[in-house]
Task: structure prediction
Amino acid sequence: MTPTLAGILGFVALFVLLAVRMPIGLAMMVVGAGGIAVLNSTTAALNNLGSFAFSYSAVFTLSVIPLFVLMGSFASVSGMGADMYRTAYSWVGHKRGGLAAATIIACAGFAALSGSSIAAAATMGKVSLPEMERYKYSPRLATGSIAAGGTLGILIPPSTVLIVYALLTEQSVGRLFLAGFLPGVLLTLLFVATVFIVAIMNPNAGPPGEKVPLKERFKVLMNSGALIFVVLIVIGGIYAGVFTVTEAAAVGAGLTFLHALWTRRLTVAKFFAALLDTVKTTAMVFFILIGAHFFAPFLALTRIPVNLAGAIGDLAIPAFAILMVIIIVYILLGTFMEGFAMMVLTVPIVLPIITTLGYDPIWFGII
Result:
């Protein structure tokens, strides 16, 4: 069996396993180990199974993932997300579509603490959806604003997805955070503008909420001061070079923990719930990363990424056109694949193509 044929069969097997709902990490382990056994030897595959899981996960730089997840968990139980929503609501909630716009703004603020789209959407959904239902918002606008706002967690630092991308591509996490900040802000503004346009075109979709007095707005803004302070310390510390990314994650987790204690919102039950949520999320991410680490050597043996990059580089097609095709493929994959799974599966193949075309991996990661 040729390496190329083995690679094609490996991808077919992988998609079959995903279709029967096998976890992506386990599916990549099975296909990667099986492919190495076919192309190299069973001994090599067994050696990888025995050593890769520990050697790859026992890396100091990976500690940034549970620390940022823990920071988001403490922020959630301490009510920072709810405070952020009330602040955004007090300033824009009285406008048509204002409650949906406040949801997106609050998602952006909470994403800067949690680094997770799921956490941002889940937290804001609990707070904002009842309010939008109370004011008879269109279900499409209400749920759409929560879903759209949740996606900001992928882009706004400290994004867990950007951290994983940095690990997969061996790029600087700090540079990715720096690159993702401005696009995250711009995307937030575009989402808010879209909400207001929808509300203007269909006034019944987003009725205005109650107007909050100016004095009360500043009072509510002060309640969000802790969130703003933590974000400035963590993200500002990384950009200024005061902290490494791992140190910033530890500082952020410590500050959100202290805030939860100070506000007396952290009970023993919530404390252990935050720890359990952190363990579950970290285990999921690590399992996917370990699976990707099994799959990558198999791909290297097939030489599919190298051959594909060389073939595309020889085509008389503008690099931008190829980039657009890659983006369209990602859009199609995103309709049925989870973001983490899609990234760890495609990056080893797409990255050589991107570098061959002359694009910066960090720029592509943000795209």
Summary: The CA atoms of residues 180 and 366 lie 6 Å apart. The first helix runs from residue 3 to 19. The radius of gyration is 22 Å.
